[in-house]
Write a structure and sequence with these properties.
CATH superfamily of the largest domain: Isopropylmalate Dehydrogenase
Largest sheet: 10 strands, mixed
Distance between the termini: 25 Å
CATH architecture of the largest domain: 3-Layer(aba) Sandwich
Strand order of the largest sheet: 2-1-3-12-11-4-5-10-8-9
CATH class of the largest domain: Alpha Beta
Order of helices and strands: EHEHHEHEEEEHEHEHEHEEHHH
Radius of gyration: 20 Å
Bound molecules: 1,4-dihydronicotinamide adenine dinucleotide, magnesium ion
Helix content: 25-40%
Strand content: 15-25%
Number of domains: 2
């Protein structure tokens, strides 16, 4: 009997989002059933086609429609014919901001038998905690004298004490449950107003968290170290822009961008959180049935964890790792399997497992 049901808004979006989202849903349904829970998937046809028809990525009351769900499961948005500023600021960024999803969590781990791009780094296990609603991605600024030779543009970076403190606290508490090391990405030697403020607030916040060491590192040196010695990191806390760049770098070092997941979290659970792969809509391979669904499946596992189903989450991750290890891989990982073939293998692997001994307890949203 199914006692725990989760009501999920599905935004498959554009390009390969339309292929990897159904693939992940198929496996999530199998794993949920094994653990005595179920998903009610509610698809929303928003994205670039919606933009072509209505001139907007989502309806004006889109945020209100999403609010009532337990979580949002997103594929990707992005279309070669539509400026990225429209797709990003018309859908993704409003969701992150309205729902105060101030943590963007990006775990990076080397997967069984997926070759890393870095020599002797088969044991990467780090998490990037990216500030997700302020910092360098701000609407404050503008352009003066457009088209004239005096033309100029200004973009303001905004760090608030509350904003830095809460993301630093999240990173610290996460590190306390892992190996106890937080590396803070900074650039306080060059950016002399905002970054020293970031350093100050991060230091003060982490002082209150027992068992956690803080290592402050200039972002350029940190980037080099992610390539040279990725295994030396545990939790990296970074501003919006630095976190974005470091997470693509780290996921590429660990194998492929096609396997990397991300969670946009509202840790207080006042609003729904959103789960998506790190990759975009990949127009170069869209419609060919070759996209790697692992990033989307792993994002689904992060969603299960957030919903209070850690055992189901772990089983799903172990299932796609087992398939990769058995040599079923998509083209980006040097294999020949299509999206559907890989998905069928994961679902079959899950179905063949013995019944789980205990089901995880449900955790309700505050
Ligand atoms: P992308 O991540 O879509 O693709 C980069 C490269 O990686 C491409 O060669 C692609 O084929 C490959 N790739 C990505 N995901 C893959 C997968 N699952 N399996 C196999 N190969 C995969 O990044 P790109 O090309 O810079 O952006 C394309 C569009 O996506 C743009 O419009 C961009 O703005 C948008 N985008 C959207 C994001 C989102 O919705 N959160 C994130 C990143 C980009
Ligand atoms: Mg990115």
């Amino acid at each position: 009997m199914t006692s725990r049901r989760y009501d999920i808004a599905v935004l498959a979006g554009d390009g390969i989002g339309q292929e990897v989202v159904p693939a992940a849903i198929a496996c999530l349904d199998v794993v949920a059933e094994r653990h005595g829970c179920a998903f009610d998937w509610r698809p929303y046809p928003w994205g670039s086609d919606h933009f072509r028809q209505h001139g907007r990525m989502m309806p004006t009351d889109g945020i209100d429609q999403l609010r009532r769900h337990d979580a949002i499961f997103l594929g990707a948005v992005g279309d070669p014919e539509i400026p990225d500023t429209e797709t990003l600021w018309g859908l993704l960024i409003p969701i992150r901001r309205h729902f105060d999803q101030y943590v963007n969590l990006r775990p990076v781990r080397s997967l069984a038998s997926v070759p890393t791009r870095v020599v002797d780094a088969d044991d990467i296990d780090l998490v990037i905690v990216r500030e997700n609603v302020e910092g360098e991605y701000s609407t404050v600024g503008g352009r003066i004298y457009p088209g004239d030779d005096r033309e100029a543009a200004v973009q303001q970076t905004i760090f608030t004490r509350i904003g830095v403190e809460r993301v630093a606290r999240f990173a610290g508490e996460l590190a306390a449950r892992r190996r106890g090391l937080v590396t803070s990405a900074t650039k306080s030697n060059g950016i002399i107003h905002t970054m020293p403020f970031w350093d100050e607030v991060v230091e003060r916040t982490l002082r209150d968290i027992p068992g956690v060491r803080l290592h402050k590192e200039l972002v350029d040196a940190l980037a080099a170290k992610l390539v040279r010695d990725p295994m030396s990191f545990d939790v990296i806390v970074a501003s919006n822009l630095f976190g974005d760049i470091l997470s693509d770098l780290a996921s590429a070092a660990a194998g492929s961008i096609g396997v990397a997941p991300s969670a946009n979290l509202n840790p207080e659970r006042v609003f729904p959180s959103m789960f998506e792969p790190v990759h975009g809509s990949a127009p170069d391979i869209a419609g060919q049935g070759v996209a790697n669904p692992v990033g989307q499946m792993w994002a689904g596992a992060l969603m299960l964890e957030h919903l209070g189903e850690p055992a189901a989450a772990a089983e799903l991750v172990a299932a796609f790792e087992a398939c990769l290890a058995a040599g079923v891989r998509t083209r980006d990982l040097g294999g020949t399997a299509g999206t559907q073939e890989f998905t069928n293998a994961v679902a079959a692997h899950l179905r063949a497992l013995p019944a789980p001994l205990v089901t995880s307890p449900a955790r309700s949203r505050a």
